[in-house]
């Protein structure tokens, strides 16, 4: 592994943490072919870990998860002199992600596939493969997030004694790259066996460190947040392959028809551009009625909501709360967290996984714009990810 300079202070901090990591220093690194996962493998190797690279083949075509990514991932393993393994995951990706995504848009919601993909397609299957095929009990990825064990100093009204010793998911140090929002659905088992080497690096640090190692991906262009967009050019391009055009009305809340659309799948809550209608003031999508094939629009001043229902909740850093708690809620990946009261309203145990799934109502201190069914509402306390779930409906 050729290096042309000494590590930066951020790189040294990451290496020190990896060298002090508890347990056996052996891991399977998920390699997408991008700079983040490439550097994760390089840092682990320099820290003295025994490393294997693993790439999941998710779909055919150009993109970080496809042909270009496979080539770069294999090249990184050759450069680092570590084994490279390829697992054909196209079937599970089709069943778990693509079918659900298409069905969601068909029913008038805007699904968030990344968190489900992380749990059902990537982290869980990667760990299973590593344990069964190589007898390795840890996996690593290039996500910007951190993990720690809850201790006495964390205790307060939310992080109570029953949560001591749990694995906590924390935001990545770089607020512009933090990816904890997409990881809320991971299980305690996975969280206890995953390593995030880049958790305390910024993206700038990553580029500098990658160039220090002369990694072939050091200056590779940043990939899209959603791999399907890379493959098809746009979400519209992807959906056009699965859902036919179906004309319908664009209406005001009064029912007045002011335009026509080619399919509800091409709209999302909060959307302003591309509506194809002219009005005396800017209009936003505030509701998608799949049954009537109708898009309802209104001025931004009429688009706020003070509460919403969230279901399929996964409590990752704490046990399911029994009473209302105050949390900071992030409603979209790039949105700022906002304060809200979280009120538990339902609790069920999954007979297959034996995991408790909870629903709640979020009561916001101020009205929120663009609360979107299908997207994730992730609950934070500072940097700690308490849990998260999917927005079921925007309440009136």
Structure description:
This protein has 396 residues and is α/β, with parallel strands linked by helices. It has three domains: 9-144 and 179-231, 3-Layer(aba) Sandwich (Rossmann fold), CATH 3.40.50; 244-302, Roll (SH3 type barrels); 304-394, Beta Barrel (Elongation Factor Tu (Ef-tu), domain 3). It is built from nine helices and 17 strands. Strands 12-15-14-13-16-17 form a six-stranded antiparallel barrel. A five-stranded parallel sheet has the order 3-2-1-4-7, sandwiched between helices. The radius of gyration is 22 Å and the shape is globular. The termini are far apart. The mean pLDDT is 90.
Structural class: alpha/beta
- CATH fold naming of the largest domain: Rossmann fold
CATH top level of the largest domain? Answer: Alpha Beta
Instruction: Let me know the largest β-sheet.
Output: 6 strands, antiparallel, barrel
Q: Judging by the overall fold, what is the CATH architecture of the largest domain? A: 3-Layer(aba) Sandwich
Helix and strand sequence: HEHEHEHHEEEHEHHHEEEEEEEEEE
Q: Strands across the major sheet, in which order?
A: 12-15-14-13-16-17
Low-confidence stretches: none
As a percent range, the share of strand residues is 25-35%
| CATH homology group of the largest domain | HUPs
Rounded to the nearest angstrom, the distance between the terminal CA atoms is 59 Å
Overall helicity: 25-40%
CA-atom Rg in angstroms: 22 Å
How many distinct folded domains? 3
Q: Mean pLDDT, nearest integer?
A: 90
What spatial form do the alpha-carbon principal axes imply? globular
Count, helices: 9
- The number of E-state strands comes to 17
């Amino acid at each position: 592994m050729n290096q042309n300079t000494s590590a930066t202070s951020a790189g040294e901090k990451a290496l020190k943490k990896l060298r002090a990591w508890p347990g056996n220093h052996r891991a399977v690194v998920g390699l997408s072919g991008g700079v983040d996962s490439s550097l994760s493998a390089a840092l682990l190797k320099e820290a003295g870990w025994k490393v294997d690279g693993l790439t999941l083949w998710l779909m055919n075509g150009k993109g970080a998860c496809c042909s270009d990514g496979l080539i770069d991932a294999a090249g990184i393993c050759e450069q680092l002199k570590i084994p490279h393994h390829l697992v054909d995951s196209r079937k599970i990706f089709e069943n778990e992600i693509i079918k659900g995504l298409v069905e969601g848009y068909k029913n008038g919601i805007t699904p968030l596939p990344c968190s489900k993909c992380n749990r059902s397609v990537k982290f869980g299957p990667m760990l299973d493969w590593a344990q069964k095929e190589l007898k390795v009990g840890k996996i690593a990825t290039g996500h910007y997030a951190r993990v720690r064990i809850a201790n006495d100093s964390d205790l307060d009204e939310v992080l109570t004694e029953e949560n001591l010793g749990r694995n906590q998911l924390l935001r990545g140090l770089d607020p512009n790259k933090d990816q904890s929002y997409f990881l809320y659905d991971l299980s305690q088992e996975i969280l206890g066996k995953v390593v995030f080497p880049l958790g305390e690096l910024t993206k700038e640090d990553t580029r500098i460190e990658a160039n220090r190692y002369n990694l072939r991906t050091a200056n590779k262009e940043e990939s899209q947040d959603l791999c399907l967009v890379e493959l098809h050019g746009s979400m519209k391009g992807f959906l056009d392959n699965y859902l036919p055009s179906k004309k319908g009305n664009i209406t005001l809340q009064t029912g007045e028809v002011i335009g026509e659309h080619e399919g509800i799948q091409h709209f999302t809550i909060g959307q302003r551009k591309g509506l194809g209608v002219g009005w005396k003031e800017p209009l936003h999508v505030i509701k998608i009625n799949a049954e009537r094939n109708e898009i309802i629009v209104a001025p931004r001043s009429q688009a706020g909501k003070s509460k919403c229902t969230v279901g399929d909740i996964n409590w990752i850093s704490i046990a399911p709360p029994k009473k209302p708690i105050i949390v900071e809620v992030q409603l979209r990946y790039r949105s700022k967290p906002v304060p809200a009261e979280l009120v538990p309203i339902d609790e069920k145990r999954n007979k297959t996984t034996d995991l408790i799934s909870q629903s709640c109502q979020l009561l916001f201190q101020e009205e929120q714009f663009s609360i979107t069914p299908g997207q994730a509402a992730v609950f934070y306390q500072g940097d700690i990810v308490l849990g998260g779930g999917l927005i079921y409906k925007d309440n009136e």
